Amino acid sequence: MLNLSLTKIKIDKSQLRVNSLKMMRLKKQSEKSFYEKKLKAMDLSFMGSKNIIAGYYPINNELNVLPLLHYLSSAGHQIALPCVTEKKLLDFRIWDMKKSLVKNQYEVYEPINGGLSIPEFVLVPGVLFDQKLYRLGYGGGYYDRTIKYLRKKNNTKFIGICYPTQIVSELPRAEHDQSLDFLINLDEI
Length: 189
What we know:
alpha/beta, Rossmann fold, 7-stranded mixed sheet, 3-stranded mixed sheet, 4 helices, 22% strand
């Protein structure tokens, strides 16, 4: 019975992923720009000062957080980006924004020379998010494993950030799926 449930969850997730990615591709540039500007209006005082904040380099029409990362850097925070490892976890490397990034095996840009870090905050991308703070990613499980690992080690906070159309009431989930600490709804800014 458990295998049937897990198979159904995988199928449901796959269908949701395909449909959501299709909707993200159809999003108009004016709508993307509108929400990217809203990012700059966010109250980020909860992040304190001079922390390590991990973001992401957007792919597949994800919300572009690069201007936000540049702003956070100018405010004194160190910025890190995720790097895929053989351990199936994400390492976070400090990103010197003046240096080039390289594409990894998944065609995602990551720094190669930055020092390893454990961020205080991680901005987490995704395909869909739900009101219970779970996310649907691309199916590799990297963020779920990393969230579980880092929660055992320290007090890192994981923040989902996305377009409002990527938020649903509830996602199918399996035992290994990890919840986030916060979800930023840009319609509420």
